[in-house]
Design goal:
Layout: H1 2-12, H2 16-30, H3 34-52, E1 60-65, E2 70-80, E3 89-91, H4 92-98, E4 107-112, H5 119-146, E5 152-160, E6 167-171, E7 178-182, E8 198-207, E9 214-218, H6 222-232, H7 234-237, E10 241-249, E11 253-260, H8 267-272, H9 277-285, E12 290-295, H10 300-307, E13 315-318, E14 324-329, H11 334-338, H12 343-352, E15 355-360, E16 375-376, E17 382-383
Parallel strand pairs: 2-3, 7-9, 11-12, 14-15
Antiparallel strand pairs: 1-2, 2-4, 5-6, 5-8, 6-7, 8-9, 10-11, 13-14, 15-16, 16-17
Helix pairs in contact: 3-5, 6-9, 10-12
Length: 384
Amino acid sequence: MPKKNAKAQKSNELDGAEFFAAIGLIEKEKGIPKAYMIEKITQALVSAYKRDHEGVGDNVTVEANEEKGTVRMYVKKDVVETVDNPCTEMSLEEARAALPRAELGDVLRIEIKPRNFGRIAAQTARQVIIQGMREAERGMIYDEFNSKEHEILTGLITRIDPRSGAASLRIGSGSESTEGYLAAGEQVKGETLTEGMRMRVYVVEVRRSTKGPQVLLSRTHPGLVKRLFELEVPEIYDGTVEVKSIAREAGSRTKLAVWSADPDVDAIGACVGPRGQRVNNIVEELAGEKVDIIKYSEDPAEYIAAALSPADVISVTTLEDGKSCRVVVPDDQLSLAIGKEGQNARLAAKLTGYKIDIKPESAPAEETQAEEEPVVDEEGEIQA
């Protein structure tokens, strides 16, 4: 009978060997560092004891010794003549019962057995431990995806909101996977999304939230095109060819300015690839979006003329403010230079950062800006 009671009491104690074995298992399965979990759990035990013993201050400590396989909790108490707070003080008589040589003014460490915890305290400890594990997992997931900000990931569409049209995508794998959010405004017009569909997305931003990391995705961001070129064109990936600027109207057209410091490298040819294979792969990924690849130049006039491709340009004159220019094109190239609904001029302005005033060759040289001839700024706005 005494053996049975001893076994019952022992079952209520915290088994150190099992404790460290469990922590090791959590580290292996979840990838949460052992030191982090030990810190959280010792904090939880102290918190639980304080909640169940009103008046306890910072005089409670937990010592976890992995080598010895022990977890012990101690409460420090001052030995005094008159006890005002039993949680922090003890009488000389009590002290000498524990340590015969105790004297007034001594500080004794009294071990607390986990079996003495109340039900509420045990529940509190459990909640804090679980919360600590969740925070660690979320922190790890945040760190994992924060390092992938401005990168391309492949996601699986798990849900499409019937009201807003926003899509949720499962990105990552295993314990380090999370939900990404693709807002309706970040989707390409004309692309049809269905649940279970896999697609490449650009990670715009990773935010912390109470429910874990929030990963904001995009299919319209210019960075998506840049990353696709890095994947397809080894010369861009290794830095031989540099992407200087990108202007994009998702689903319709993108202009990409490229440049190489190596005079023997054809920057445009490297991006196009043999028989256009590289750029065709990117166009296919972008569901047929047109891609204009132009050569970047330090000379603004040369750069602006190239940006207005496929239209021919007769002359480019930069104006005194340094942010505007006047471009003269052949009469039959005016509509091509402006583009459908002003798109070509708008993208050229975004790409170069210049306001572009396009005029036909037949216009008198002294003629001021005509109302029907648009001036497009770098924000893509047509000036009145």
